[in-house]
C-alpha cells in the first residue's frame, strides 16, 4: 500500500521525493538511470502520467520501470481515463477541486470506477488544486479550468480544507508541468496550517533550493518531472536536499514535538 507511506511521512516529518515520468517523453536510458537512483534509495515514489499521453509504448515503459526498480512504488497520475494500468501500485484518484468543471470533479471518476475496482488498484482520493504558475500550462488548458491565483493563499487554504472535509486523503497542489513559478511558500504554508492531510507539491521545481523551500513551508512530498527529463544527473543533489529537509523536522521531533518515528510501509497491493 502506498498511502501509509505518505501518512507515515506526514506523521514523522520525513520528507519524500517523487519523480514524475510522462510516458510520452520517457526514454529508455533516462528510465534506467532513474531506476538505478531509486534502487539506491534516492527516489521514494514514481508518479506516472501526463496531460496528454499518446505514446503506444507507455505500457511497455512502465513494465521496464517495474522490472528495473521493483521496490519503489509507482503511482498513476492520470491525465485521462485512458491512463489506467494495473502494473502500477496505486492511483491518484484526482478530483480537480480548484476548478468548476463537473467532469473532473465526478464525471470521469464514474467512468473508471468499475475498472479501478477490477484492477485492484489502490485508489488514493486526491484533492487536486491548480495554482497559477505564471503562464497557461497543459493541465490548465486541458482541464478547461482556471487555477487559483498565486497571491491568494486564503482561497487555496479554503479549497484544501473543503477537500479534507469531503473526505479526500491527500492534497496535491500543482503549478503545472514546466510552470514558470512553482507554488509559493505562502500558499503551501497557508494550506499546511489549515489541513492535516499529507500535502504534495509540484510544478516548476527545478533546483534543490526550490524543493527545500516547498518542504520547509509544509509540503510532505515534492514532485519533479520536467527538470529531470533531459538530465537526471542532478537527482542525487536533489535527493540529498530532500533528506536534509527531513532531518530538520526529525530534529524538531527529537526535541519533543511528538512526531512518530518513520517506518515506511513498502508493501504492495496484492497483485504485483
Ligand atoms: C506536474 O507537478 C508536476 O503536474 C511536475 O511538474 O514537470 O514542472 O516538474 P514539473
UniProtKB/TrEMBL annotation:
Q: What is its EC number?
A: 2.5.1.41
This entry's Gene Ontology molecular function terms read: imidazoleglycerol-phosphate synthase activity; magnesium ion binding; phosphoglycerol geranylgeranyltransferase activity
The alphabetized UniProt keywords are: Lipid biosynthesis, Lipid metabolism, Magnesium, Metal-binding, Phospholipid biosynthesis, Phospholipid metabolism, Transferase
Catalytic activity, as annotated: sn-glycerol 1-phosphate + (2E,6E,10E)-geranylgeranyl diphosphate = sn-3-O-(geranylgeranyl)glycerol 1-phosphate + diphosphate
Q: Name one GO cellular component term.
A: cytoplasm
Region entry Disordered: which residue ranges? 241-272
SUPFAM superfamilies named in the record: FMN-linked oxidoreductases
Q: Where does Mg(2+) bind?
A: 22, 51
Q: Name one Pfam family in it.
A: PcrB
- Please name the GO terms of the biological process aspect recorded for this protein, alphabetically: glycerophospholipid biosynthetic process
Report TM segments.
none
- What's the family? Belongs to the GGGP/HepGP synthase family. Group II subfamily.
Per its database record, what is this protein's job? Prenyltransferase that catalyzes the transfer of the geranylgeranyl moiety of geranylgeranyl diphosphate (GGPP) to the C3 hydroxyl of sn-glycerol-1-phosphate (G1P).
Q: What is this protein called?
A: Geranylgeranylglyceryl phosphate synthase
Gene source species: Neolewinella agarilytica
Lineage of the organism:
Bacteria, Pseudomonadati, Bacteroidota, Saprospiria, Saprospirales
